[in-house]
Inverse folding.
């Protein structure tokens, strides 16, 4: 017998609204600004290395990304990067922090439908102010029973959140576009994990699809989520 789902956690970036596309656009601008010093592929590689190296100190989000771009620019130019380029990178970061919210298809309908029957919690990483701004602009804020902006998404963290907002991880589901952050640690905590892939996913979020896990599900988009939850009830 399966206990039914009472609480649903939603990831935000690239699950409810577009996010990675703004990082990709800024990366392309970064490559253009540094074109005379390095090839794009080399730049992207160095930037990803810097992001990975800095994650433990900067955490996830736009501000850490900008600092990693500046660090990479200094490295690849042997400390000769013009201050006009640094200025452009700072400006690019500020534009990212102001980008308008674009909800993904079916996000509003799925959240509205499930908010009527379940406790729903937004669980996201990233810069606190930026995530609060995006949630406010999304128009979805009122629908959530709880909002958790966390420094990282781990199994103990999911256990704690679903314990506090619901009936524990065993009766919870986490929905998101990242196997590494949304799905696998939620499964490890004992919850259902629903993978909704997005065609752009950050290199540091990749992981293998879980094989034959009884609580793992994959959906092409959020339109199918209320039905899936209904089938598990
Ligand atoms: Mg995401």
């Amino acid at each position: 017998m399966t206990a039914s789902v009472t609480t649903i956690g939603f990831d935000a970036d690239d699950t409810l609204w577009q996010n990675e596309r703004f990082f990709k656009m800024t990366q392309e601008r970064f490559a253009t600004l540094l074109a005379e010093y390095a090839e794009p592929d080399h730049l992207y590689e160095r930037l990803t290395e810097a992001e990975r190296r800095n994650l433990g100190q900067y955490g996830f989000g736009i501000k850490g990304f900008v600092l990693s771009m500046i660090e990479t620019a200094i490295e690849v130019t042997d400390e000769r990067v013009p201050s006009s380029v640094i200025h452009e990178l700072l400006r690019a970061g500020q534009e990212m922090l102001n980008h308008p919210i674009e909800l993904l298809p079916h996000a509003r309908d799925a959240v509205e439908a499930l908010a009527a029957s379940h406790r729903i919690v937004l669980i996201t990483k990233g810069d606190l102010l930026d995530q609060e701004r995006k949630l406010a602009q999304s128009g979805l804020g009122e629908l959530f029973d709880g909002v958790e902006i966390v420094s990282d998404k781990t199994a103990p963290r999911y256990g704690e959140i679903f314990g506090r907002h619901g009936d524990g991880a065993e009766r919870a589901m986490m929905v998101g576009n990242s196997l590494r952050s949304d799905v696998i640690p939620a499964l490890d905590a004992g919850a259902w994990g629903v993978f909704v892939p997005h065609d752009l996913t950050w290199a540091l979020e990749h992981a293998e699809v879980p094989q034959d896990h009884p609580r793992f599900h994959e959906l092409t988009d959020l339109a199918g989520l209320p039905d899936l939850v209904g089938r598990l009830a």
Q: What stands out?
A: The chain has two domains: 7-17+101-232, 20-96. The chain has a mean pLDDT of 95.
